[in-house]
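<instruction>
Derive structure tokens from the sequence
<data>
Labelled lines for chain and fold
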Amino acid sequence: MIKKTFTFVIYKVFVKYLTYSKMDRSETIEEYYAKHPFLKSFDVAKSNSHFNIIPIAKQHQMENGGSVTFGRRDFFKICIISGKSKIHYADKSFEILEHGLLFTNPQIPYEWEVIGGLQEGFTCIFTESFFEGFGDIKKYPVFQLGGYPVYELTQEEHKSLTQIFLQMQEENTSTFEFKNDVLKNLVFQLIHLALKIRPSTSLSLEKNNAAKRITTLFMSLLENQFPIRNSLEGLSLRKASDYSSQMSIHVNHLNKSVKEITSETTSEIISKRILKEAKILLKHSSWTISEISYSLGFKGPAHFSSFFKKQTQISPSQFKNLEL
């Protein structure tokens, strides 16, 4: 168990400064509300479960030309869009020529670039806990890594799906006792209808920006594994190939992108992050070296000690006993 109070504070502060850059930090739902003055303030302390639907035209009047900067959000979004725009999602770019449907989740950073004219439609935002006990929202392909998050819509599809958003908007303001159940059903209805529509074919891989987006996603997946809170649960993503598989790209593509942006190899970055976590656990936890080694994905203490000594020239036990 991690030591409480002071050592835990040190641990959290240390972890904060281990992040790759500010672009890896997720926008919280409170921050989202704070930058949209026309929305009522939101206090996450009152409830982690949240749902809202927002007109896009009004939302974009409050933002930088309507565009949404590249990054992650700690909530889910479903947007129906009318207007010319580009959506940059991980290493892919999708162009919306007239009407589109967008799905985003907390794992994957994205950017919405308005090309011209006023955007219209609706943004539906919700937390995962809103669906607690009602179904696993993350299991659907539209919210998974490697899935297709953007769907081009015909006029008829746009009209039909817009009606669902209008129903959600009406229900969201009602006083009906079971309105949340209705809203959940409408969200699932949206997802099921989208899965019957072909994904967007207006897809282009933009070499320069794609490398940055791939690197950001890699760093995000890496950092999301820390801090380790349970010595019995090892790292699920340990090698470059683990990350490329999760991102649905070839490992060579991942390695090339990371090297281009950071001047380091994927394996070097993973090793550095594991080493930093190892130092934190050795100094600020009561775990044994054996527990630390397994929690970091090593086959055993001998493999961990060999790794640690190669990186630091001293053994884990020697580091643990060093005076701060």
About this structure: Residues 1-24 have pLDDT under 50 and may be disordered. Residues 266-284 form the longest helix (19 residues). The two ends are 20 Å apart (CA to CA). Residues 99 and 214 are 26 Å apart (CA to CA).
